[in-house]
Amino acid sequence: MNYLDEYKKWCESPEFDEETKKELLEIKDNEKEIEDRFYKELEFGTAGLRGVIGAGTNRMNKYTVGKATQGLANYIVEQGTEKQGVAISYDSRKMSKEFSMQTALILNANGIKTYLFENLRPVPELSYAVRELGCTAGVMITASHNPPQYNGYKVYWDDGAQIVAPRDKDIISKVREIKSYSQIKEIGRNEAEKAGLFNIIGTEMDDKYLNVLKSQILNPEAIKEEGKKLKIVYTPLHGTGNTVTERLLKELGFENVYVVPEQKEPDGNFPTVSYPNPEDKKAFKLALELGEKVDADLVLATDPDADRLGIFAKDNVTGKYMEYTGNMSALLIAEYRISQMKEKGILPKDGMLITTIVSSNLAKAIAKEYGLECIEVLTGFKNIGAVMKKAEEEKNKTYIFGFEESYGCLIGDYARDKDAIAAVMALCEAACYYKTQGKTLWDQMQEIYKKYGYYKETQVSIVLEGSEGAEKIKQIMNDMRSALPEKIGSAKVLKFKDFDRDVQKDLVTGETTTTGLSKSNVLYYELEDDGWCCIRPSGTEPKIKLYIGVKDESEEKAINKMEELKEEGGISARAKRYRENNQLLIRRMRALGIETYIDDAHQGPIITTFFTPKMDNFSFAEMYEYIKKRGYAIYPGKVTDADTFRIGNIGEIYKEDIEKVSDIIEEYFEKCCGGLVRQTA
User: Fold this and answer.
1) Using CA atoms, how far apart are residues 568 and 220, in angstroms rounded to an integer?
2) Is residue 564 a contact partner of residue 552, using CB atoms and an 8 Å limit?
3) How far apart are CA 145 and CA 162, in angstroms?
4) 454-568 adopts what CATH topology?
5) Which of 313, 506, 644, 651 is most buried, with most CB under 10 Å away?
6) Stated pTM of the model
7) What is the pLDDT of residues 18-68, one digit of tens each?
8) Which CATH superfamily is domain 40-201 in?
9) What Cα–Cα distance (Å) separates residue 271 from each residue in 40, 266, 322, 517, 679?
10) End-to-end Cα separation, the chain, in angstroms
């Protein structure tokens, strides 16, 4: 069924309510909008659902949420764990409350007990609640840091972590088995409550969660000494964070906590920010203004579901508020907590620090310094959670700290997802401790760099929306797989990892091995001098992401290295250059009458195979030498069913080179073959 047929079905079928039909009829003359809403089903992927709110198969609405929940319910019933129950929470986004209630009642209709938070609560508290209540699963209605028009649906399992392989695939399979929305079971709240299936949780879980956070404090005496003086500005960015954060800080003894008044209350429109993401400096505008007004030491922001934390800390030398990346804030916490655990004699000998492949290599340096094992996983905190679970089951490693570059970390093993609430607490504790030593957090960050080297990282995202964007993202990744450069910028490539193909190639030794991690559409380039690049499509937004990391002996040199890689355009720009060069080469050869062996639809950008011209006086060996004497090289063909030759397009090859070698080939035919080919195979 094509998108127009699917659109018509939604407009006419009795399966869909009148409000939905009315919304769809309003776009009846906008075919592009219809296509975007119906060209595919909103995929229930390994991270659950996430999409724009609205009517259609490719949207977040009660029908797509219902289908996801019924699939999850079928899986739980099949496992026989329905009596353990499912914990459910939600953030401040539009339709979050409605989707959470719908989720609970569909699960109830399938005989599954639910524990629904009385109102919005952060992701980490849900993760904790799943473990505390002994639930079989958890559901969080959230789109995290996405723009206001989005919402999402994240599934957790009994360990409190988001679902991972093979369970994620099994649940996805159950969701896909739902072919009609009429298969979704329904029950009323009153009936569910009478059956003992529908339960509300709230402040009692807050108490337990906050108590376990407070138990993670390492230096309560430092908080007692400096907590009353430390000035903290905090904003939940209209999300869930302040349901527990302000209370936590006050109970610990922080008396000067200023919550940004304009952003204190939950609001799914996020009226004061265009993008409720603490990674974005613009989201800090009001918080920084308040920070200046009250002379704050720290300015903190959490995203709508409170799993990400952004931070600005005052530099007392310049008086400026300095921005921390996700890597910086996480590793500041890591260095503080690990060093204090060692000093107090409580650092386990089998300790592990877990991070992701796109996070800072500084993590490895810190782990080495304190004798910890540094374990790298694929992007997504669920993969950190999976390592924690395995260690817990095998009782062979002790979790110390885990983080990912996307502004998220976890300081203890009470939960299995990023916890920005705990990160707020840890940073405030660290600020107090360093104050007792006459240092600010910014002072300490500089000391970390001086100790380990200056590590710098950046990320570049390219937004490619709709069906066309999805195809472009696919093409970029395919191009990159066939484009293995010797250098990126001036840095040599030492290793290349293709996680989708589970291949790791050492470019120094030539050895090829497996990656040791699960398959994922990710490409990784290990560079000399502890540098690296990584490219992957976003799992939650229509983006392709390029990550860059460098290290040097000074901050200036590290920044210069990073900028060089960015100016080179990184990997995605190189792929674009290869593709454009390939297209130019084909045009020039066809103008001479030389045709490609592979059709355009399947032609890669790196090596182009051409049919050998059918000319009596043509000699590939002669053409080869003619071109070589003029500074270029081509290659004989490898196929067996036709006479061919090949022209490569990899490395430092530019448009000017393609034009030059094409001119040389044209010159060869005119001088040595009596004219142009003008004939094809």
Assistant:
1) 48
2) no
3) 17
4) TATA-Binding Protein (3.30.310)
5) 313
6) 0.84
7) 999 999 999 999 999 999 999 999 988 767 899 999 999 999 999 999 999
8) Alpha-D-Glucose-1,6-Bisphosphate, subunit A, domain 3 (3.40.120.10)
9) 31, 10, 25, 41, 65
10) 40
